[in-house]
């Protein structure tokens, strides 16, 4: 745990008592803050009270005496409208912050702070976070990994010299971190996502930009430049005098890390200084994973690892569950769990990596649907549609073979049957291009269910 000493003897309101909220409450109390915690769920309040965390309806507090409202990242800050607790804070002139901001303040108070890598982007941030942590561990560093992926940031071990904190940051967490200042800030890519929470793409991109714009003195911003939004951000951050390392899987770079003929190339001043082949690293299959690898390579170098060490470590990366995870092979049919593909841009990366696909898609739809995936429809033998998005996806697929499966169980059974009957190599791919919230609590539960169904097949 990281005790939040920056709030010692301060009265703090905390709203949101999920996993990160509970961790934050514990850290605030350990640091000497006077906490009043609340949640719209009575069960969550009861659970916190059972742990000894002081609870109470924040509407009954004297807000004039509060130092801050600490908000869980899942609670609306701005759109579709601010949560009632945020409105109370605004009326009283009380700052609204999150757990990543509290971590940043503690890190600055440490006599010899740890290095801090923060990773964001629309897609790929969890894989990049895990890959960077793997590289640093193999390189002999003391690594703490968490944030939006893994343990809550304040449940990690405290900052100290020689330690590296590697933290995935969602746009919600960045929005609650006004002084976010990583040693290495990573922005992988940007495409429309979470617009229900950010209002429009301009605001969403501006929030993401803050992570790389805030890298500390002497730090490095690692930025993907394969979309127009991120490329413009790289130019703006560089114009402020910060060091920027650009990464690309679509173009050669005079300065940066790019993909060429299946290998990462590090270039400085037009001179190629290192080449790292990715062929044979199954956990980094696909162009999207090449982008993740490029970002992790650039970040690990910025954190002090030699490229030769990075190259050896990258070959041993085991990959992540729910991200193009090969679950099982039955005959010539491979079953792949890509439940983390919660939007079309993420699903595109999986569809581009395979042929002869029996595609399971659908759930709670994101903006834009799957129209952008039309160039990959020829790779798909048949689609099996589930959830709320099924009718709209069927309309987009048009004459392409598909069926309305409804549920994941029915989709897996049908896809497995059809792939086996067709004969030859094939992939049954769960890459939903949708959020899970119509049928599952989160993408992990959806992926776990897929894995269980597949493993139960004869």
Automatic annotation (TrEMBL):
Residues noted as binding ATP in the record, renumbered to the chain: 121-127
EC number, as in UniProt: 6.3.2.9
Major localization class: cytoplasm
Keywords: ATP-binding, Cell cycle, Cell division, Cell shape, Cell wall biogenesis/degradation, Cytoplasm, Ligase, Nucleotide-binding, Peptidoglycan synthesis
Protein localization: Cytoplasm
Domain Mur ligase C-terminal as annotated: residue spans: 322-434
Pfam families: Mur_ligase_C (PF02875), Mur_ligase_M (PF08245)
Record GO terms (molecular function): UDP-N-acetylmuramoylalanine-D-glutamate ligase activity
Top-level class of the enzyme under EC nomenclature: ligase
Catalytic activity of the protein: UDP-N-acetyl-alpha-D-muramoyl-L-alanine + D-glutamate + ATP = UDP-N-acetyl-alpha-D-muramoyl-L-alanyl-D-glutamate + ADP + phosphate + H(+)
HAMAP family assigned to the protein according to its UniProt record, in alphabetical order: MurD (MF_00639)
NCBIfam families listed in its UniProt record: murD
Protein name per Swiss-Prot or TrEMBL: UDP-N-acetylmuramoylalanine--D-glutamate ligase
Organism from which the protein derives: Ancylobacter crimeensis
Encoding gene (name): murD
């Amino acid at each position: 745990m990281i005790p939040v000493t920056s709030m010692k003897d301060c009265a703090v309101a905390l709203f949101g008592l999920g996993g990160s909220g509970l961790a934050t409450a514990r850290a605030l109390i350990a640091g000497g803050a006077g906490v009043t915690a609340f949640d719209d769920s009575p069960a969550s309040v009861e659970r916190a009270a059972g742990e000894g965390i002081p609870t109470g309806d924040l509407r009954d507090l004297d807000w004039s005496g509060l130092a801050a409202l600490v908000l869980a990242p899942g609670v609306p800050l701005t759109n579709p409208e601010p949560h009632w607790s945020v409105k109370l804070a605004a009326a009283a002139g009380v700052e609204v912050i999150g757990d990543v901001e509290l971590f940043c303040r503690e890190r600055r108070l440490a006599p010899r702070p740890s290095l801090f890598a923060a990773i964001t982007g629309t897609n790929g941030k969890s894989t990049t976070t895990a890959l960077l942590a793997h590289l640093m561990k193999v390189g002999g560093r003391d690594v703490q990994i968490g944030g939006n992926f893994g343990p809550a940031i304040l449940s990690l071990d405290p900052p100290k010299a020689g330690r590296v904190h590697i933290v995935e940051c969602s746009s919600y967490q960045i929005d609650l971190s006004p002084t976010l200042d990583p040693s290495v800030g990573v922005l992988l890519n940007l495409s429309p996502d979470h617009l229900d929470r950010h209002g429009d793409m301009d605001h969403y991109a501006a929030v993401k930009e803050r992570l790389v714009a805030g890298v500390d003195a002497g730090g490095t911003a690692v930025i993907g430049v394969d979309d127009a939004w991120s490329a413009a951000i790289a130019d703006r951050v560089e114009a402020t005098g910060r060091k920027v390392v650009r990464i690309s899987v679509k173009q050669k770079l005079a300065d940066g890390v790019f993909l060429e003929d299946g290998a990462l190339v590090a270039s400085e001043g037009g001179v190629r200084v290192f080449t790292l082949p990715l062929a044979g690293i199954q956990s980094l299959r696909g162009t999207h994973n090449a982008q993740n690898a490029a970002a992790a390579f650039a970040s690990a170098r910025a954190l002090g690892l030699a490229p030769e060490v990075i190259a050896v470590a990258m070959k041993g990366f085991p990959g992540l569950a729910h991200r193009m995870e090969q679950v099982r092979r039955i005959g010539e049919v491979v079953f792949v769990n890509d439940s983390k593909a919660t939007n079309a841009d993420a699903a595109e990366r999986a569809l581009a990596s395979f042929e002869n696909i029996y595609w399971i898609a659908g759930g709670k739809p994101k903006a834009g649907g799957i129209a952008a995936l039309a160039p990959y429809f020829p790779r798909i033998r048949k689609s099996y549609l589930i959830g709320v998005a099924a009718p709209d996806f069927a309309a987009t697929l048009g004459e392409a073979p598909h069926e309305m499966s409804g549920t994941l169980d029915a989709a897996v059974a049908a896809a497995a049957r059809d792939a086996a009957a067709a004969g030859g190599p094939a992939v049954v791919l769960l890459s939903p291009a949708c959020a899970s919230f119509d049928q599952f609590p989160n993408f992990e539960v959806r992926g776990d269910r897929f894995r269980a169904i597949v493993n139960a097949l004869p």
